[in-house]
Design goal:
Blueprint (H helix, E strand, L loop, with lengths): L4 H11 L4 E5 L6 H7 L4 E4 L3 H6 L3 H6 L5 E5 L7 H10 L5 E6 L18 E3 L5 H7 L4 H7 L3 H4 L6 H20 L4 H13 L3 E2 L3 H7 L3 H13 L3 E6 L13 E4 L2 H8 L9 H17 L4 E5 L5 E8 L3 E8 L8 H9 L5 E5 L6 E5 L2 E6 L1 H8 L13
Parallel strand pairs: 1-4, 1-5, 2-3, 3-4, 7-9, 11-12, 12-14
Antiparallel strand pairs: 6-8, 7-8, 9-10, 10-11, 13-14
Helix pairs in contact: 7-13, 10-13
């Protein structure tokens, strides 16, 4: 079993600061194997009836584990999972717990009451360091096969696996937890969002093809966000009339599903730009762990892929560029006319040596994905409140 070093280190660091840690990620992202890679843990699969019976008396169960590090995998399967976490939170010296679930804490925000804020780690699909650990660094394979370890490591793209995952996702992670009934409408919305990943989201465009009302479209979109299947990226704006101020973009959680629902079996040169943007976003999600990511766009069509707002670095513009030679400064220049202060990163796949170029008043740092990871490393923010991006 390959040890995913970035995630093991992130979990150990976060767990050292809290008695309880919530680990979320879509089904198949590798939560179970990752937790079992941690040293000196008692592992419990909460989906097994025998294990559930052992945990019926929460006080007694936790008492037997005094002073131990415990993994409660698929904790949402326990009828008394809130009680277990509440007891553990009230006695932090008793037991240290990692609770895993496909759903983010955002999905439980109205129901989870432990008396303590629970930090959470978001296990994304395979990121850059995972490729190094797996010794498979071919990005074409990662883009087409996707970032679920069981898909990627098989070494071949099998359409059947993607469709089976979607069917399982609906039946196990959506229908029961969220009590949704319109299977075909939900799946149609998800499939369209996956195929149009990275585009502007306007709910009215989905009403007719999905056969649902505007409010239902929004409800299902938020369900997809809570289950980590879709990410909502909202525009950065200070209310200027020429800026897009409210229309979000939506991103599928993984490139493999994006390619599958686009019908891409092989990649053309023009496909790499949008896939690189997804790959950069996945890296940002992995390393930032909860900081809100924006995009910027004006009504003339100028656009910056991602914008980070931090007290450490101010307003940072991130442009995703598959090949450095194809970079054009006009979009960045339009952005900096409105917001002149801040860093500009041009993240390129073919950048070996980082360097800075000046375009008039614009200074832009051309960096690799690895270099970007180093720059944002200090910004990692393990959340103790549900995200609302």
């Amino acid at each position: 079993m390959v040890k995913r070093s970035f995630w093991v280190n992130l979990l150990e660091s976060a767990w050292a600061k809290s008695s309880i840690l919530w680990l979320s990620g879509v089904p198949g992202s590798g939560k179970s194997s990752l937790c079992q890679d941690l040293g000196d843990v008692e592992y419990f699969d909460c989906s097994i009836p025998r294990i559930q019976m052992q945990m019926e008396d929460s006080e007694r169960f936790l008492g037997r584990l005094y002073g131990k590090r415990v993994v409660l995998d698929e904790i949402q399967e326990l009828p008394n999972h809130q009680e277990i976490l509440r007891i553990a939170a009230s006695k932090p010296s008793l037991t240290k717990i990692i609770a895993t679930s496909p759903l983010s804490l955002h999905a439980y925000s109205s129901r989870m009451d432990t008396g303590e804020k629970i930090p959470q780690v978001w296990l994304t699909p395979i990121m850059s360091q995972d490729l190094v650990d797996f010794r498979q660094t071919n990005l074409v394979d990662r883009f087409l096969q996707g970032g679920l370890p069981s898909f990627f490591l098989k070494g071949e793209k099998a359409d059947r696996r993607f469709q089976e995952w979607v069917n399982m996702f609906w039946a196990k992670e959506i229908q029961e937890p969220f009590r949704l009934e319109r299977r075909n409408s939900f799946k149609r919305l998800m499939e369209i969002l996956f195929a149009q990943s990275g585009e502007l989201f306007e709910a009215k465009r989905f009403v007719e093809p999905c056969g649902m009302s505007h409010p239902t479209v929004m409800k299902y979109l938020l369900t997809l966000r809570a289950s980590r299947a879709v990410q909502i990226i909202r525009p950065f704006s200070t209310g200027h009339g020429m800026e897009i101020i409210s229309t979000p973009k939506t991103y599928a959680f993984d490139t493999g599903f994006f390619c599958f629902f686009r019908g891409w079996q092989e990649l053309r040169r023009d496909d790499f730009g949008i896939l690189w943007k997804h790959w950069v976003l996945n890296e940002l999600n992995s390393r930032l762990q909860g900081r809100i990511i924006h995009y910027w766009r004006d009504k003339r069509g100028h656009e910056v892929d991602f914008v980070l707002i931090t007290k450490e670095m101010g307003i940072t513009a991130i442009v995703c560029q598959w090949r450095a030679k194809d970079f054009e400064v006009r979009n960045l220049r339009a952005f900096r006319r409105r917001y002149p202060e801040g860093r500009n990163w041009i993240v390129c796949e073919d950048m070996i040596q980082p360097h800075t170029q000046t375009f008039g008043k614009i200074r832009a740092d051309f960096v690799s994905l690895e270099e970007m990871g180093k720059l944002i490393g200090p910004l990692c923010q393990i959340q103790d409140t549900p995200e609302h991006q």
